[in-house]
Amino acid sequence: MKLKYYKCSPTENMTILIWDTVPKHQYVEIAQSLMKENHIHAEQVGFVTEVVKEEEKAAVRLEMMGGEFCVNATRSLAAVVSFRQRDEGGIVKLETSGLEAPIDCVVKNMDKAYRKEIGIYMTPPKKIETITISSEEGMVEGTLVAMEGITHVVVNSGTVKERMLLYHSIRKQLEEKDMEALGVMFYDERLNYLEPLVWVRETDSLFWERGCGSGAAALGAVLASQKKNSIKKAIKQPGGTMDITVNWEKGGIQDIYLNGEVRIVSEGWLYI
Length: 272
Prior knowledge:
Layout: E1 2-10, E2 15-18, H1 27-34, E3 44-49, E4 61-64, H2 71-85, E5 90-96, E6 103-109, E7 115-122, E8 127-135, E9 138-147, E10 150-156, H3 163-173, E11 181-188, E12 193-200, E13 205-208, H4 213-227, E14 231-237, E15 240-249, E16 252-271
Parallel strand pairs: 2-3, 4-5, 10-11
Antiparallel strand pairs: 1-2, 1-16, 3-4, 5-6, 6-7, 7-16, 8-9, 9-10, 11-12, 12-13, 14-15, 15-16
């Protein structure tokens, strides 16, 4: 099989976007092959399709490999759409798996055509609640943030010695919840440093990601909820920095805006 692809780097959260039509039942098998080090290698794979709701006027639709919602893959697709159209930036509306309504991406051109600054507006989390995780290390406090398409648990990285043990404890504790994807966000408040560990159910893939957009948004939501106030913060991750703005009004989060650079690092044909 020969497929047209783009590979993008949103804060080094390496993302492959397949531009050709692929049967949906092959998504998982193809994604698992492409993510391996003996292929073109990435942390995640998305498939570009025709829109479902034509009346919404979205440019295209993104179907993630596990049917989840991925902020960085969505931002990557907005960059590619703008790159292909050779436009001057502006709003790119996209449909995506994991979300019922289209999402607006704000595109700003940078010094090179393959570099874009991409912002994305996100709806408030469905739920934010404190949880206690029982692990072999003892009891660990965390904050569960249920978002459309993915659930995150934010923990203080300084309270955790064995991170994989904690991850497996969280998986076990939340196994009855119907989650397309789970992120465990290890946050060092002193350094303002976030390390994302993300699992996708459909592909059963687990990655220490270089950057996680929805995880950064979840952290921003937690910080705003703790302060009960709007926040604006540049959150450091292994692959770079993402800017998060959380708008707090009338006793709750109204919206979240995430912004950062996306680089298109390659395009071409792959064989599988």
